[in-house]
Amino acid sequence: xxxxxxxMRRRDAADKAAGRTVYASDVIKPRMLHxxxxxSGVASGVITHLDVERARSxxxxxxxxxxxxxxxxxxxxIADHPWLxxxxxxxxxxxxxxxxxxxxxILQAALAAIDVTIEERTPVVTMAEALDPxxxxxxxxxxxxxxLVDVDVARGGNVAWQATVVRGDVDEVFARTDVxxxxxxxxxxxxxxxxxxxxxxxxxxxxxxxxxxxxxxxPWSVRxxxxxxxxxxxxxxxVIVPPVGGGFGMKFEVSLEPYxxxxxxxxxxxxxxxxxxxEEMATALCRENAEIRLRSAITADGRIAAREGxxxxxxxxxxxxxxxxxxxxxxxxxxxxxxGSVRLNSQAVYTNTAPTGAFRACNGTYGTFALERHTDExxxxxxxxxxxxxxxxxxxxxSLGSTGQVFSGNVHHELLEMISSMRPVDEAExxxxxxxxxxxxVGTWFVFVGPSAATINLNADGSATLVTAGVEIGSGSxxxxxxxxxxxxxxxxxxxVVVMQADTDASGYDVGVGGGRTTVSLGAAAQExxxxxxxxxxxxxxxxxxxxxxxxxxxxxxxxxxGDPSMSRxxxxxxxxxxxKHGPLIGNGAFTIRGTECLPGCAAGHMIDAxxxxxxxxxxxxxxxxxxxxxxxxxxxxxxxxxxRAINPDAIRGQIQGGVAQGLGYALxxxxxxxxxxxxxxxxxxxxxxxxxxxVPAVRSELHEGAPSYGPFGAKGAGEIPILNVAxxxxxxxxxxxxxxxxxxxxxxxxxxxxxxxxYRKFRLDHLNEPWLTYVVGDIDAQHGxxxx
Amino acid sequence: xxxxxxxIVVNDDRRYLPxxxxxxxxxxxxxxxxxxxVKVGCSEGTCGAxxxxxxxxxxxxxxxxxVACDGGSVRTVxxxxxxxxxxxxLQDALCEADAVQCGMCIPGIVVxxxxxxxxxxxxxxxxxxxxLIGSICRCSGYSRIVSVIEQVLASQPPTxxxxx
Lengths: 789, 164
Ligand code: FES
Ligand code: FES
Prior knowledge:
Number of strands of chain A: 33
Strand order of the largest sheet of chain B: 2-1-5-3-4
Helix content of chain B: 25-40%
CATH class of the largest domain in chain B: Mainly Alpha
CATH superfamily of the largest domain in chain B: [2Fe-2S]-binding domain
Shape of chain A: globular
Oligomer: heterodimer
CATH superfamily of the largest domain in chain A: Aldehyde oxidase/xanthine dehydrogenase, molybdopterin binding domain
Strand content of chain B: 15-25%
Largest interface: A-B, 57 and 57 residues
Number of helices of chain B: 5
Number of helices of chain A: 19
Bound molecules: FE2/S2 (inorganic) cluster
Structural class of chain B: alpha+beta
Order of helices and strands of chain B: EEHEEEHHHH
CATH architecture of the largest domain in chain B: Orthogonal Bundle
């Protein structure tokens, strides 16, 4: 029996259900102190006075730290983020002082005893304000910041990063008389990851090194950035990751760890920091709010002759992940379809709001929403059939993507066929007077491949221990797909493969768990390590059995002669023979991105010019809308998803159900509003409305196998993409139901009612109405060089 | 502030616990007794992760001041007691259905649902979404959790489903 394709159960489920699993937020250590942060209450201002002496002298207060303890600037694309505010504060919730005390109560008293005066300035709250030529510049020293990646980037003023795509001559196409032009604008709100476990960590300082147990998706980034922020050697930081209580991208960056580490060193005691839900509401690295303009020139035969876009992405006060994410609009908002000429400008814009970040499928979610609403609007305005339009224009084998990469396979086509065969036979009942609609959405996403390392110890008892920096964030990859991959190669049962919890002292470098990369990158490294150790196992068996290794195979826990299973030894026998004779059996594997070509000159300011392993998906749903209240009910939800190879089908379907649920929250109810003072108005789950059990239907899904992927056994990432199309499918279904467009997320009842009144028919964002070139920072021709057409 | 000693029977053990001010039952259980099965997702009574049984009733431990439990009896998911069979049935079925992802919400849901089933508050499948209105799961999208509850409900002898 093969370990692939079986829906193996997870070994960690029983302890999780029994409450025995110890998350970072549960770790308790002898003499452990409670750490906490004094945070700014204003969005923009100058710290004119800061006195921590009274707090420091309070009994039970063990450490009080200010900005000078954190000399390094953090960033993903640009090092622009001081870890404690020095001189200036730039968002509500920005940490100013870090404190460790004997108890939570003393900690609160100490934080209250800190004397700080901030001279408040008028904050830059919206992107429209930030791009106003007279706007205050959030980072007057922006040009001195270090750019951390090897990319030529145009930036300046409040534009932290610009990524552009230029292909062909868009102006010429738009001026043609044989095309019709459709323009749409979209406004997108933030979404909070709201993992049930908040960010949490415990740090100790011993033997001259920092040991940090933390709830993170990126142990190696935490190690390296903690060191850089504190100004110490990276090898002096060790990061261990207990099971993580959900992350969804929020834990893809360093967060509380440098504070805990520094406080532990100063106090000489372990220090725990756990964000409260209120802190998470104020400072989570939300999916960013965004504003989009999209224009398309459509030919008489229903082809897209040109497409032009401007995307503003709010990175908040510090750029974080957004410089990277400006890359992804080219592949999502400008993905899915074959395009003639192209120009797209995506900018990360600084505002005096909490920094935003990565959240499951990131800006792909709203890129797909805008693109697929735009697609339906094109069809509606030009009298085209959306099903035919999609079938005609989706990426096919040998199609060019927006940056000129060549796609292979006809996966979108096959998914569209799968989804049409999944339509319900009977209509679900709805209350009298409610309006019904159906929405379809196509999506393209990718696997965030990158370096991963793996080591396998094949033990003398026939079991295998896999050492990687893989974190169990709940998706099950480290207890399902990855053991299954290793087991398949080694011919043993997946139950006898143990994946060690991530520990940067034990495992090699890894980019982290997220971006749908765990099964692919870590899985591929694990597969290579397994192949390495398998070769050694066969050599040892050949010696023991006096048969050439070429004539041996491993199955069902036995090394056997091909064609003669009666000649066999157990893996344990062979492994213990090898251990006694030559030493333990160890295999190593390493993996990274292979790289995919795009057309030269198309993309500028991009960290990824082409998608290495694209993933495709199609969603469809039926909704009912109450015309009196604007309430939307999802009646049926269907997903056809390209998975490459389904290593654990049940686990994938679990990811689909969960991803769709988060998508429904994004589409319908999870609203974040920011007031004029730069304050996020939602304080907790009382006013931030997450989906509940009654809101989410059981999602029906079909898995598409066989599309090309260089992941292990042809697998692709399956956990991130399920959220990608949800807002798009629901948005199209609502528009279908009410017979009017809707162009904002989330589609809360008041917005649905506004849509019913026709308020999105000519929806325009004033600050996005200028000619495309107006938005370009720097010289576009110089940035793109000699251009392909 | 001087802590006062509060007497609480926790999972059948009589405990004398130092409690200052309005410190919550969740904090005392987690920090003093290391009962970290009591998860804290919000501390504001809005997620259900901290649900315990206080004097027979499902209770949000994060909102309950520990001093208010003086003389009371608390059961967590760890404890033995009359709900144990139901809890085990739910836990086994959750594992079997691959319904557990990050797991943070699960102990609270197990405690709540087993108590509501035994009290007759969840009698038919239609009762489940309302019963889970205070339980947030951010990972799973609920449907497997809901079908597990339906399944356990169906396997209950009618007598244990409470009286109408
Ligand atoms: S922690 Fe008590 S309800 Fe959320
Ligand atoms: S499994 Fe993660 S919150 Fe429910």
